From TrEMBL:
<keyword id="KW-0598">Phosphotransferase system</keyword>
<dbReference type="GO" id="GO:0005737">
    <property type="term" value="C:cytoplasm"/>
</dbReference>
<dbReference type="Pfam" id="PF00381">
    <property type="entry name" value="PTS-HPr"/>
</dbReference>
<dbReference type="InterPro" id="IPR050399">
    <property type="entry name" value="HPr"/>
</dbReference>
<keyword id="KW-0963">Cytoplasm</keyword>
<dbReference type="InterPro" id="IPR000032">
    <property type="entry name" value="HPr-like"/>
</dbReference>
<dbReference type="GO" id="GO:0009401">
    <property type="term" value="P:phosphoenolpyruvate-dependent sugar phosphotransferase system"/>
</dbReference>
<dbReference type="InterPro" id="IPR035895">
    <property type="entry name" value="HPr-like_sf"/>
</dbReference>
<protein>
    <submittedName>
        <fullName>HPr family phosphocarrier protein</fullName>
    </submittedName>
</protein>
<feature type="domain" description="HPr">
    <location>
        <begin position="1"/>
        <end position="88"/>
    </location>
</feature>
Amino acid sequence: MLSKKLTVVNPSGLHLRPAGVLSQTAMKFKCDVIIECGEKKIAAKSVLNVMAAGIKTGTEINLICDGEDEAAAMETLSQAIKSGLGEM
């Protein structure tokens, strides 16, 4: 299991478009991908769960990847989040 603290940099947080990009990217991997935001644990492969979490810009999250391709998933998803999920 790998975990990494990241800050959401999207200007309007994880609304539909960036949540969709994040979920579609997470679905490419076999491992479980969880986003911890405060007390919430969100399954990153579900666009509805990611959107419903209401994660705003500047929010610190903990990205957790657990499974056979966790290292590749962590690298890819970390870069996607740092680069603004296609919005910057």
